[in-house]
Amino acid sequence: MPDRGGGPTGPRIRVGRPSRRVRTLLMTLGVLAVLAMVFVMFAGFWTDWLWYRSVNYSSVFTTTLWTKIGLFLVFGLLMAASVGVNIWLAHRLRPPLSAMSTEQQNLDRYRMGIAPYKKWILLGLTAIVGLIAGASAAGQWRTWLMWVNGVAFDKKDPQFGLDVSFFAFDLPWYRFLLGFGFATVVLSLIAAALTHYLYGGLRVTSPGGRATAAATGHLSVLLGIFVSLKAIAYWLDRYGLAVKSSDFKATDNWTGLRYVDANAYLPAKTILFFIAAICAVLFFATLWRRTWQLPVIGFGLMVLSAVLIGGLYPAIVQKFQVQPNEQAKEAPYVEKNLKATTEAYGISDINVTDYPGKSNTTDKAKLRQDADKAASMRMIDPNVVSPTFQQLQQMRNYYAFPANLDVDRYKGPDGKEQDTVIGLRELDLNGIPKNNWINDHFRYTHGYGVVAAKGTEATPGGSPVFTESDLPSKGTLGDYEQRIYYGEKTTQYSIVGGPQSEIDYSDDKGEKTTRYKGDSGVNLSNPLNRAAYAVAFGEPQILYSGAIGDGSRILYNRVPKERVEAVAPWLTIDGDAYPAVVDGRIQWIVDAYTTTNGYPYASRTTLGDTTADSLTERNNQRAVVAQQNQVNYIRNSVKATVDAYSGEVKLYQWDTQDPVLKTWMKAFPDTVQPKSEISPLLMDHLRYPQDLFKVQRELLTRYHVGDADAFLSGSEVWQVPDDPTNRSGKAVPPYYLSMRMPDQKDQAFSLTTTFTPNGRDNLSAFMSVNAEAGTSDYGKISILKMPSAETIDGPKQVQSKFNSDTAIAEKIRLLRGGDSEVEYGNLLTVPLDGGLLYAEPVYVRGGGLKYPLMRRVLVTYDGKTAFEPTLEKALNVVFGAEKASPPEKPETNEPQPPGETPPEPPGSADPTVQEALEEAQRAFDDGQQAMKDNDWKAYGEAQTKLKDALKRAEEAQQKADEGADGKPAGKPDEEPSGESSDKPAEKPARGA
């Protein structure tokens, strides 16, 4: 044993190998560490497999997995083999070693050092490059599946006469292969050159030849392959011109060939292809000539040609041929772009009509009656009233509504469809009495019930008129499964169905409990499953908790949009999933799109930017979930549903002609159901999706023109106006409402927006799409184009005039009495008898009750403005005529519609109102405290006091409103409030 320390007579310290026990311990720890790492990786794989199996989409998991594995192995092995063979070949072609120079003597030390490890070094290097290449190739699984399953578009591109599928499905795969080939050759070339240098085949400072004949031949072949690939790249670049984006006419998303591309770049790429092919032959010829002279000359010629032919010549053409006569030169190519872009975005068949923007009708009574027929004005803004739903219908602290509610259609008591604002009472863990693992994941597991309100009216106090409310919810929707296990706010996992009971809700009789009876989620009775989820979720209690037993199932991935995206990772998901009660179940309806970035001549759009508006600025949950952000083709090809109780996901083929969807259906068979499987009840709730509409309206700001000259001049460019009721500077969102376009006889559920001239605020056009699925006109886009010679007020100007009106400003000041806040709702625009009717609800967050109530309505038409407590009164004032009264009905003692909530006036400067509101606030606070204490008797008493106080406040507020108009209660107005008309109009009696 070696000695350490001390002299000849000093102590000796024996240093030896660790004892067997230590070695065994270290080996055991090492094995356990490796096994732990393997199990962590296995847990992720296993839980993914279990989840896909639980939703009956295991074929998506297996197809994706095997595709990734196949690509990883094939391309990883190709890369490893290519680099390894070239290193082996360079080593085999090494010259006999003779250290005749200082350079070779220095290298000799490295050669001797790596000699014992040559095989391991070779295996290590090839394994590393193979793993990197395989991982990169696995990420191309979508490209591979689209190439191998591609379906023809049956449309030819205008330049090459090839089917669009070549550019959408084939060209991306060829480009990947080309890029992989370049990477393989470059790495092989570097590895071979280093090996030749290390073993003397290449010399830098040694006298004599710089390379042996063997090294010259080997490297020449690799360079020849590289140049051959460059020739192929030049050839593919020709087709790439059809999908190339460039800056053109103030847009950076122009796609397709222009004059300089077709007449300079295209022939240049063809010439460069032949030059590169010749250069490649010269490199291969060095196998026989053993000289670099000709290949170097050829390579230099190729580089020079690329600069002159590929760069300088197109610049000369652009400067001296295109710019002096751009309009004539570019017009044919603009026509191709216009045609392809409108086809790719589904806007080729739009109805553009001229619209005067001002009414010539003098019959005020007719205008008043037409106003009621023109639209069902939605005065309950779903993007404002969520706090109102929260305060009036939350019922329990552990329930909450989403920040933005949704608009749908439901039949009222009279059997007619009406626009309805709807939201689900979802679980909110922040409101449970005590947060712990059992409460968060076992006891509080789901929301409960739908809350819905009429979209067109409010109570006299400004609260929504609920058609479905209370807990459990009851009203016009009938019987349905009210438990909500899957929703927009349900982001945590829950473990259900086991020995631990779940809380439905609480009332004055105590807690109502339940146990999940669905088959959703993954069964945890298997110890392996429990261990895998304990690792995957980082929660060891899942492994040993006694709260998990027979029948326990774990629910996760519960947000509807994320759930659809997971089972169909090839789809782009609309930002707004919305709930509907369909056949006794709550179904989340999710619109999904197929997209591509390879439609020739179609200009590109960036989905994240195009679909952004003032709503997504405030609520990023409304953002589109895009697999591919830059696209130039989009279709709403799939309608998906997610059952709020069972979590079942169904995909329905909506666009039966879409070749991209057909391609994915070939790749993932039996995942998308045919359109015929959509039930009539579900069809009643399907609608035109918002994000698609936003993409189309953005494209139509430029592509509404019908000819190249108008496009090139840029004189008719529009823009989407900023939201006039929001200071974010973001675009106004489109609005759903039932309305009638001038060419329609009846109202149709529609999605609408407005356009203004570029850089100006007056109105250019009004756009609407029939959003009512199942009708013959579904998806029909209509644009009403305003005369360019006249100035028609746009939304921002209407809002500005409203804010600057002194009479209205005084009423706003009164509404802000105390600590109240005024909030503006959606500014709706509706065509009416040649003019445009604007209507906007005005909300007030009053006193201590910080939730918005609709207190006033702004209506503007042909320069006349009214600001009244109800829409009906405002329309009467604007048109100077009253609505025709319906036949009188005999008085009955029928109860009010279920769920009707007593009106709640906001804060006011009136002391009587303030006193009543203060009492209401105390009752509200008492009720909240009783809820926290689980004292439901006290909670019921507090609710009764709250309603009584609010009723008194409403009566006082109505008197204050009459006083604010400057007239005694019950007397008609002498002049319409806030009206700009020169003639006075008689104010209708209250309640007309």
Beta-strand segment tally? 34
Please mark out the parts with pLDDT under 50 across 5 or more consecutive residues, or reply none. Answer: 1-10, 888-909, 964-992
Secondary-structure class: alpha+beta
Largest sheet: number of strands, sense, barrel closure: 6 strands, mixed
Short description:
With 992 residues, the chain is of the alpha+beta class.
Structure description:
It is a single chain. The chain contains 27 helices and 34 strands. With 992 residues, the chain is of the alpha+beta class. The strands form ten sheets. Strands 3, 25, 26, 27, 28 and 29 form a six-stranded mixed sheet that branches. A hairpin with a 2-residue loop joins β1 (245-248) and β2 (251-255). 45% of the residues are buried.
SSE layout:
Blueprint: H1 20-54, H2 58-92, H3 102-114, H4 118-138, H5 141-149, H6 164-198, H7 213-240, E1 245-248, E2 251-255, H8 259-289, H9 293-322, H10 326-344, E3 351-354, H11 364-374, H12 386-393, E4 399-400, E5 406-411, E6 417-424, E7 426-427, H13 437-443, E8 447-448, E9 450-458, E10 464-469, E11 474-475, E12 483-484, E13 494-496, E14 502-507, E15 510-514, E16 522-523, H14 527-536, H15 541-544, E17 553-555, H16 560-567, E18 572-573, E19 578-582, E20 585-596, E21 605-606, H17 607-610, H18 614-618, E22 630-631, E23 633-643, E24 649-653, H19 659-667, H20 680-683, H21 690-703, H22 708-713, E25 718-719, E26 735-739, E27 748-757, E28 765-770, E29 781-785, H23 795-804, H24 806-815, E30 821-824, E31 828-832, E32 835-845, E33 852-861, E34 864-868, H25 871-879, H26 911-932, H27 936-964
Parallel strand pairs: 3-29
Antiparallel strand pairs: 1-2, 4-7, 5-6, 6-9, 8-12, 9-10, 10-11, 13-17, 14-15, 16-17, 18-20, 19-20, 20-23, 21-22, 23-24, 25-27, 26-27, 27-28, 28-29, 30-32, 31-32, 32-33, 33-34
Helix pairs in contact: 1-2, 1-14, 2-4, 2-6, 5-6, 5-19, 6-7, 7-8, 8-9, 26-27
